[in-house]
Amino acid sequence: MTAPLTGRRVAGLATAGAVTMFLIQPPADLWPLAWLAPLPWLALIRAEALPAGWVRVAWAAGLVHWLATIHWLRLPHPATAIGWVALSAYLAIYLPLFLWLARRLVHGRSWPLVPAATLAWIVCEQLRSSLLGGFTFAGLGHTQWRWTTLIQVADTAGAIGVSGLVMAGAAAIATLLPGSLLASSGRTARREQVASLATAALLVAGALAYGSWRLATVPPPVEQPLEVLLVQGSIDTELKHDPEAAGDVLLEYDTLTIEGLAADAAAGRPDLVVWPETMWRWGLIEIDPAEMLDEAVVAHTLPADAPPADPVVRQAQARAALEAERLELLGRYARRYGTHWLVGLDKQRITPRAAGGAEHFNCALFLDEAGAVLGCYEKMHPVMFGEYVPLADRFPWLYRLTPLPAGLTAGREPVAVEIAGRQVAANICYETALPEAVRSLVMTLDRRGQRPDVIVNLTNDGWFWGSSELDMHLTAAIFRAIEVRTPLVIAANTGFSASIDGSGRLLARGPRRATATLRVAVQPDGRPSLWLAAGSVPLWVCVAVAAALAVTGPPPCTGRRPSPTI
C-alpha cells in the first residue's frame, strides 16, 4: 500500500474532496467530473495508516462540504440557519463512516479498492436516505441525470445504485493514477489495476446495455395522452404568509391560468389544470361530528329564518354550512376554468381528539369542471422541523421555540382520481425526494386497481429564492419517475415546473424564479421494475453485509503512525 500520511496531508485531502464533491452538484454542476471528484477521499482509504484524530478532520471536511452544498436551507427564515448547521453537522458524519468502512474492507479484509469503496458508499447513502426521516439530495448518482441511458439502472437499485456505479468508476481510476497517494507499485499493483478497471468497465457497460434495452421497451405513444396545464407563479414565500396578500396570490395564479388556457385554445381545454402547493390561500375546514360548536357560532352560521330544529340537527347543519362555505369559492373558479383542477391548499380538521383542538393538513384537492370535489390527498410525509416538531403533538409549547405556528398531521393513504380515462395520483413537495414513499404510493394504488398513469407533484419552492435547491428537487423527481416507471409532472411555485416521462427524460421545464404555464401531454408508461417489486431491500442487504464484515475479522493494518501534524 501507500506510505502513512501526515495530519496536514489528511486535512488537505479531506478538504480537497469536500470541494470537488461540492463542485459536481448545483450550482457549479460540473457533473462529468463526478467520476473524478472522490479521488482525494479514495487516497485516504488507500493510505497505509492515518494519524490520530483523522476522524475529526474528516468530519470537519464533511461539515464544510454540506454547509456549502445545502446552503439554501438558511434562506427561508433566520431560524432555519440553525437547522442548516445542525443538518450539515449530522450529514458530515457519513464521510468518516465511509472512510472507516472502506478502510476496514481494504486493510482488514484485503478487498480491492473498487468493491470496498463502492459498498461503503452505497451503505452511507442508504443510511442517510433512511435515518431520521431521510435526506436524499446531492447523491453522487444524481449528478448523472443527463446521462439517460446510464441512469435507467435506477429501476433496479434506485438512485443509490447509480451512485455506486460512479464510485466504482472513480475507484478504478484511483488505482491507475501514478504517485504515492493513489497507486501502489509492483506486479501486485498492476494486477489490481487491471482487475479494478475490468470490474468498473463491466459494471458501467452492463448498466449502459441495460439502459439501452429499457429505453427500447418504452410503450408506444397513445393517441390521446393526458393533457395537463402546469401553472407556475413566482410568489415569495413571505408574501404567501401575509394574510392580506392572499388576494394577490390568487390574482397571479388565476391570471396565469386564464392566459395559459387562452394560449392553447385551438388545442381545446386541457384535461387537468394544476396549481402548486398551498397556492390557494383559503384553507378548507372539516369539523368532527364529535365537536360541539358554540351556539353563537351555530346561530351566526345558519340563516336567521331557519326553522327550529333539534340541537343535534342544528349542529350538523352548521358544520355542513361552514365546510361548504370554503368550497364555494373553489367551485366558482373550477367552473371558470371549465376542466379538472388540482390545487394545493391547507385543511384544518377541528376535533376534540387533537391536542389544541385541531389537526392541520397540507392537501391536494381534485375538483371537476362543475366544481365538485373528486378527492383530497393529505400529505403523508411531513418534513421534520419544517412542517412538524417531534413530540409537539403532546407538548404543543414546543412550537413556541420555532417559527412554525402549528405542525402538520400526516395523511393516511394515497389518492388517485380518474381523469380522461387515466389514473392521476398526487404527492406534495419533498415526497418526491423519498424513494420508498413514491414506491409505496404506486404499490398501494396498484393493489386497489388504480396504478397511476401519472404522479402530479405540487410544490412550493418559493422558500429558496431560485437557489440550487430547485435543481436538486427536480433531479430527485427524475429518479423517482425511473424507479417506478411512471411519468411525473410538477407544478412548482418559483420553479421548476416540469414534465418527466417514465424513462426519466426531462420533456419540459419552467424557468427559475419566474412565471410560466406549461401545457404537457403525458404518455402513460406502466412498465414493471425490480424497484417496485423489492424496493430498497437489496440496499439494506448491502448494509447488513457491510456491518457483518466490519465488526468481524482482523483489524486493518495501520502501520506506523506519524506525528499528527495539522
Could you explain how this protein is built, in words?
The protein has 2 domains: 7-217 and 534-551, no CATH class; 226-526, Nitrilase/N-carbamoyl-D-aminoacid amidohydrolase, CATH 3.60.110. Strands 1, 2, 3, 4, 5, 6 and 13 form a 7-stranded mixed beta sheet that branches. A 6-stranded mixed beta sheet has the order 7-8-9-10-11-12, covered by helices on one side. The chain has 566 residues and is an alpha/beta fold. Mean pLDDT is 91; it is low at 557-566. A hairpin with a 4-residue loop joins strand 10 (488-493) and strand 11. Helix 11 crosses helix 12 (311-337). Helices cover 43% and strands 14% of the residues. It has 16 helices and 13 strands.
Characterize this entry briefly.
The chain has 566 residues and is α/β, with parallel strands linked by helices. The protein has helices spanning 7-23, 39-46, 54-69, 80-91, 94-108, 113-128, 154-176, 187-216, 237-240, 246-263, 295-301, 311-337, 435-447, 469-484, 530-534, 537-551; strands spanning 226-232, 272-274, 284-287, 340-350, 358-367, 373-378, 416-419, 422-428, 454-460, 488-493, 498-500, 506-509, 516-522.
Largest sheet: 7 strands, mixed
What is the element string, with H for helices and E for strands?
Answer: HHHHHHHHEHHEEHHEEEEEHEHEEEEHH
Individual helix count: 16
The global form is: elongated
